[in-house]
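A common beginner's mistake is to predict each chain separately and then try to dock the pieces by hand. The better habit, illustrated here, is to supply every component at once so that their relative placement is modeled jointly.
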Amino acid sequence: MKEELFNVQREIEKIQNEFDFDYVGVAFVQSADRRFELRWKYVTGNQSDRHQRLALQSGKGIAGLVFKTGKPMFISNADEELGGEDLYNYPIVVAEGLKSFGAIPLYKYNRVRGVLLAGYRTDGRLKAEVFREFQEWMGPQFGPFYSKEMVCE
Amino acid sequence: MNGISGMQLSELLMKLYGNSAEAIFFFDRDGNVLGMNDAAADILEEDVYRQLMAGQSGAICQTCKGYMSADELQTCASCYMSKPDEDISSFQVYFDTKGKGIIPYSASIQTIDQENGIRAFLLRDMTHQFQTQEELNQKRMMKRVIKAQENERKRLSRELHDSVAQEMLSSLVDLRVLKYMNISEEALKKLQQTEGSLMRLLDDIRHLSVELRPATLDDLGLKAAFRTHFKWIEKNYGLAIHFDTDLESERYGGEVETVFYRVCQEAVFNALKYADVEEITVELHEQDDTLQLFVKDEGKGFDLYEIEPKGTGLGLFGMKERAELVDGDFTVESVVGKGTSIRLRVPVKRRDDA
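With all components supplied together, the output reads:
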């Protein structure tokens, strides 16, 4: 399936409905001439337009971390786990007021191409089991992407 | 007698004795107290006072915590009381005083009546001077730390930029050469991925170098460095910065430029962390040989007199210290619920070699 034919916007809205998420967003890594910045291309349930200004470097913010590590990230209480003082390092969490959320890498050709972030504006609403359930529901494929590192190509 | 009659003098001396804030004791040759003024009685615990007045020699040792010598801060070695014939015009001594704990005094002991061996012992409270001195030392230290930190950042930044990044770049070029050799489709694909990773790594190193200290600041000046920094903030934190300046590519002394850059950086970060705003305003103008920086947000604001600061509490202090490094003037205004603004004013002379 080609990226263009796969309607990301429709898909994240479907995810939002299924789990009643307050917010779902997908960030994609830009091409080399765009310095591999991560941009939040598709969002739903957003309360601000701040994501449009964001162009994260690898390793910065939620998207940058998941991108760099290639591992999912799960936070059940943002203020406690990310530390109130350092929360500004996660601008999307601040802008959208997310309190419990999960993020998963989106792979293509064994490289992380994007990051999917879904969450609630309430503490502890996303529980570890629910996040697992969500990952299972998503399945290994998200359009042309897959969510687990695979060694074969 | 120097224009004062004997009567007047004794009256004045009585007043001095009674009203002075300095503690005055009179001792005889054996170290017994003959008398003390109210200021002296005030600093003594009642118990010690009674013992002293009862003529117990050595009672003073209960309250005296030693004097300062070249070897030790508080010592009793060759005590000032032990040599009745020696005058010491000024030395520092610690006394355990009533209600105030151990405090430093400047003391003097001298014989005023040779015949009867009577000596006067005077104590002057030094707490305030010491605090002032401490503050001064702290400030001087802080300034040195700021300078050292800046130099170290510069060194590391240069090293990363000139050496590490350069090496990286030449390996990248080497790698690219491979693309034009006869290699399989599969190898080419892998090669492109590796090239991508290396380029990202190179970018990371460059970012690190700029974060430590932007070369733009040294090479192109304040305006360019500000613009680059604001762009970076906008991209990484989503905070919009409205930057207004009438500067072109004017250059100022390196120290002044550093101070402006760091103060602005700190102020913007403060707004980002605590103000809870989407946008802020930064203005940079030169007028009448004064360079002015103005950073303003309309966010949460804070109580300037709050004792417990958010964060480390070093930020505002550091900005003030930096301003003082270049004889600048730094002010903060903040109203809870209305927002915060900082202003930095520094007298400047332009550098002509720009």
